[in-house]
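Cont'd.
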Amino acid sequence: VIRVFSALYPRSWRARYGVELDALLADQRPTPAAVVDLLLGALDAHLTGGGGVSSVVSRWRTPGALAFTVGGLIWFAGDAIELLDGGADQLGLLAIDAARLLVVFGELIVAFGVIDHARASRRGRALSLATATLAALGLLVGATAMVVLVLHTMGISNSALWYALEWSPGGAVVYYAAMAVFASLATMRNVLPRPPLAALAAASGGLLAWTLLPSPVNGIQAAHILFITLPLSWLLVGVVSLVFRPSRVEVALS
Amino acid sequence: MPTDGLDDFGRFEEPSLLVLISLSNGPKHGYAIQTDVRSFANVNLGPGTLYAVLPRLERMGLIEALPTEARRRPYRITGLGASALQTELARVQGIAAAGIARLGANS
């Protein structure tokens, strides 16, 4: 009877360990404790891919990195267009908000990596969970702002809520500060145990120059761009490096 | 590569330690590990826990799988696993010694 429960494990996991697990189950009595233990084991295998690394991160890290990179580039192009035409048309804003969807997808992959690390390690668990919470806060505000903007373009809501979420001191602080702290801590602690500072500096400097050079900007615009550019460039380096270098958790497990 | 014991195992740290101790005197398959752990530690390793730990230890290179014998696959500890076990046991021994010393000082 208990062997029925072993079918709850992921197919890829069963391909490797299924036969020996069934042999083990054939050797013991099906106690309620063993059944519960088996159910928890199956859940763990689904959450971690069976080896301690989230299958979500393993499966989606390449598309996540691509989405983040492409989204980031469109985002900054949109910013540049906005600054060039002085907000005369909506092209830049639309580019920014379309790109944000891609960027959020990439950010989610890193967030999963952070949660993975928090689950797998005793050390730094509180910090990892704190960064994941900050990411969730930032993503929530950003995603709500996007929905409100779409409703606004359809004439369903007025723009006040979007401005409140995105540009008011409260909304901007939650969104950008949360993302800035999350990006820095996630990149430093989870993705890159020894962050390539030269690459981070080059990415930050390059993206800043690209965004700032098209036209003169005032102090508020410069601060806004700086606030977005620095954490995004950190995340950019962090996410892209996920494709080429295994995360800290995967290094430990390989 | 892990050189600092079993820190990255989270809630599976103790079962991992028990499995490594069990394999330290020779290869064993799942049921033999369960029986052995029960005999030296009086701990029942459930099948789900055991098969959450074995893939982790294998991926970290602390144990390796041997050819299957009658649907049962034995595992043996690697050199890296022996080193991680030694580190972890030294840490546990230090904790035990501190606890015993403090109890002695209070009595």
